[in-house]
Task: structure prediction
Amino acid sequence: MKTINILVVDDHKVFRDGINALLEKVEGVEVVAEASNGKEALDQLKKCRVDVVLMDIDMGEMNGIDTTQIVKQLYPDVNILVLSMHGEHNYIIKMLDAGASGYILKNAGMDEMVSAIKCVSKGDSYFSREVSTVLLQQLHKPVSTKKQKDVALTLRETEVLKLIAQEFSNPEIADKLFISIRTVDTHRRNLLEKLGVKNTAGLVKYALKKGLAD
Result:
């Protein structure tokens, strides 16, 4: 099994030390570097191979939002998992806009953090229950679409997109819609191309803005 290399970015050393101590006990996961701000994070990414960045938001020099944007521009294969105390909608959306693949709160348990790391390392999205609740609440609110690109989706693509926004995996979507996993993969790729987004987080953001919910 390939080891998932982690970069921990947080301005509190005690917190970084705690994450390091927890993850060193987890098989298949290794903290290879740490940074106290965005500038240091970019320096670390030049030195070592990183699969997942655990990213805080509030940091003194270069915050997590700006850092995530730059990381995704320079290292598109590096996945960002937000680990923050902020569960408000505006923070979540800004990090998704910046390119984050997942978002969990700092009160998350060890098991959830490891699950989130493994999930985003594969290119999927992961949101803690509290974050999912905020996103789903927003899905049901009327949203202005004046500036949103008007894209014609098929009925099946819309069904798949709704389930993606509700965090169902490809096998779960296939089971719910009585189609093959390969067909779900095809719909997902088509959605990415049609909507002009790069990852699952982009699909979730589009669904959020369009108010696509059952």
Summary: Residues 141-210 form a domain with the Arc Repressor Mutant, subunit A fold (CATH 1.10.10.10). Residues 143-148 have pLDDT under 50 and may be disordered. The longest helix spans residues 181-195.
